[in-house]
Amino acid sequence: MTDRRPGVVKAVIPAAGLGTRFLPATKATPKEMLPVIDKPAIQYVVEEAVAAGLEDVLMVTGRNKRALEDHFDRNYELEHALGRKGDQQRLSTVRESSDLAAVHYVRQGDPRGLGHAVLAAAAHVGDEPFAVLLGDDLIDPRDPLLARMIEVREALGGSVVALMEVAPEQIHLYGCAAVEATADSDVVRVTGLMEKPAPGEAPSRYAVIGRYVLDPEVFEVLRRTPPGRGDEIQLTDALQELAVRPEVGGPVHGVVFTGRRYDTGDRGDYLRAIVRLACEREDLGPDFRAWLRDWVREEL
Ligand code: G1P
Question: pTM score, two decimals?
Fold first, then answer.
C-alpha cells in the first residue's frame, strides 16, 4: 500500500462580506458580483480554482446569495433568446459560468470573521486538505500560484499560505509572516503570523495574500480560536497556532509570489485592477492602451 496523502480537490471561497466599501453598488448585489470589465469578480476566482484542478467549489455566503447562485446556474430564458438569434458566441459566454465547476453553497449565518467563514466549510470539506481563495485578490492566470501551493502541500504536508513582499507602509493591511528560508527559493517556512500588525510591529514585509492550502486540522484549531483583531475569528490566528505547534497539524509554509496580482478590495484598487486588466486583454487592450496613452498625455 502506498502512503499517499489525499490530494487537494476542493476550493472554499468566502463570499459573505457586506461590501460596505462599495455602497451603494452593493446594497442589493454582493460585492463578488461587481464586474471586472465584463465578468463578475468571483468568476475569475472560480476559473483560477478550476485551472488548478479544483472543480468542487464551496461558496460561503451571507445575504444576497441569490445572484451568486444564479450566475453559476443555467439561464434557460437567456440561452433560448441568444440561440434564436444565432448568437453562438454570447451563448457560450453565458454557459461558461454554469459549466465551470460543481458549485456548492453554505450560509455563514452571523458573519464573525474569515476564520469563522472557513469553519462553516468543515462539513463539506471533511478530512481532506483544501484551498481557500479570497475574492478581493485576482491572480493573473499566466502566473499560476495555486498549483504551486498544492505542489508544496503535497511535498511537505501541513498548510501553505501565499506571500508577497509589500512596502513596509502597506503591511498593516495584511496578515504578516515571520519566515525562514528553505532549499527552494520560492518557498519559506512560516515561523509565526500576525494579523494586520501595527506600524513597527511587523516581523517582516511578507504579506499573506488571499490564497491558502490548508490542512483539515485547521478546523479543530479554529473551533477553539477566540475572536482576535476586530473582534473576529481570524484565520491568521489559527495558522499562527499551526505554525508554532507543527505537531498539531503539520508545518506552515509560504510560497513567495512575484507574479501579477490585482487587488479589487477597495475602490481605488478596483479601478487600478480594471485598467490593468483591460490593458492586458487581447480583444480590448490595443484600443484601450492607445486611448489611455493619449488621454494621459492630454488630460493629466
Ligand atoms: C484577510 C486576512 C489577511 C490577509 C488578507 C489578504 O484580510 O485576514 O490576513 O492578508 O485577507 O487579502 P481582509 O483583507 O479580508 O481584511
Answer: 0.95
Residue 5 belongs to some domain of the structure: no
Give me the pLDDT at residue 2, please.
47
% of the chain at pLDDT higher than 70: 98
Instruction: List, for residues 203-216, the tens digit of each pLDDT value.
Output: 999 999 999 999 99
Number of structural domains (the chain) is 2
Q: In angstroms, rounded to a whole number, what is the distance separating the alpha carbons of residues 118 and 111?
A: 11
Q: Tell me how far the alpha carbon of residue 133 lies from the centroid of ligand 1, in angstroms.
A: 11
**What confidence category does residue 98 fall into, taking pLDDT thresholds of 50, 70 and 90?**
confident
Regarding whether 147 and 60 lie in a shared domain, the answer is yes
| Ligand 1 atom 13 nearest Cα | 174
Ligand 1 pocket test target in 132, 194, 208, 212 with most atoms within 8 Å of CB: 208
Which residue owns the Cα nearest ligand 1 atom 11?
Answer: 210
Looking at the structure, do residues 157 and 285 belong to the same domain, yes or no?
Answer: no
Identify whether residues 220 and 145 lie together within a single domain.
yes
Residues 158 and 296 placed together within one structural domain of the fold: no
Tell me: the pLDDT tens digits for 227-285? 999 999 999 999 999 999 988 888 999 999 999 999 998 999 999 999 999 999 999 99
Q: Supply the range of the domain harboring residue 85.
A: 10-265
pLDDT at 6: 72
Of 60, 108, 114, which is best to mutate to test ligand 1, by the most ligand atoms within 8 angstroms of its C-beta? 114
Question: Do 24 and 173 lie in a common domain?
Answer: yes
Whether 146 and 238 share a structural domain: yes
What was the pLDDT predicted at 19?
Answer: 87
